[in-house]
Design a protein that fits this description.
The chain has 298 residues and is an alpha+beta fold. The chain has helices at 14-21, 26-34, 109-119, 146-157, 234-242, 288-291, and strands at 2-4, 39-41, 44-45, 57-60, 79-83, 87-92, 137-143, 162-170, 177-186, 194-197, 205-217, 220-227, 264-272, 279-283.
Amino acid sequence: MEFLVDDVHDGVLLRSFLKGTCGVSSRLLIQLKKRENGITVNGEHATVRRRLCAGDRVVISEKDVVPQDAFTPVSLPFSILYEDEALLVVDKPPGMPTHPSAGHDGDTLANALTWYFARRGEPFVFRPVSRLDRDTSGILTLAKNQYVASKLCEAMQAHRIRKTYFAFTDGLPPEEAGRIETGTRRREDFFVLREVCPVDAAGASLTVTEYRVAETFGAYALLEVHPLTGRTHQIRVHLAHLGCPILGDDLYGRASPLVSRQALHAARLELSHPLTGEALVFTSPLPPDLEVLRYHKR
């Protein structure tokens, strides 16, 4: 990754330039300092105490150190929506976990991507910027290096990345559109489950979701949902709290004969490219098991 020092930053410390202007995180800066030629100025190794001059070319290493616990490569189906030197945007099918876990050490997106890069002879570090539950389908973004990961995380925290989900709900929401703003936290009696609570309760995180009804089908509805925060099970918890849990969600609602999973799909992603600033928009159509719900009346 290369940065050109302009007149405004003439005389600035390299540390300040990297952190303040280039957006290099403290964590990444520590790692770069430990790497051979992790940071160079005009082609020469440089310490972060160096004062820069206008016209200097600052380069930080993009080389990844593949961890010892790299995932087993497995050929699994998934779709690539976009790929360049910085980003990988994929369309994850339902039933595929994002990360390996107990009982799922060879059927995950991490395994599939390890196989994808191994086939090309490229090193790979799994850096999903966000996660999707195993049975939630749709768009997921990954960073190709740690610098890009830090920029995307910063954009998420600043609400500069907009996500749109489609959710079929078991029941109808009380309003055609609304905003759900609560605290959420892990339930004490069940490690996996989350619950709504006051924002100032112990262990609570502020959680905000906006929604609108796109279509209704008798006793259930298709909602367009925008999570403004990124908490575990956020949409599932909030829609259950609203009185219309996601159809087929047997954790926060009930199983359904109409669909074999929670009917939730990450359908649209809008962001600026972390390096170029270009506006990017990605879409994913409803998969067949959810599309068919639009034609089922009950």
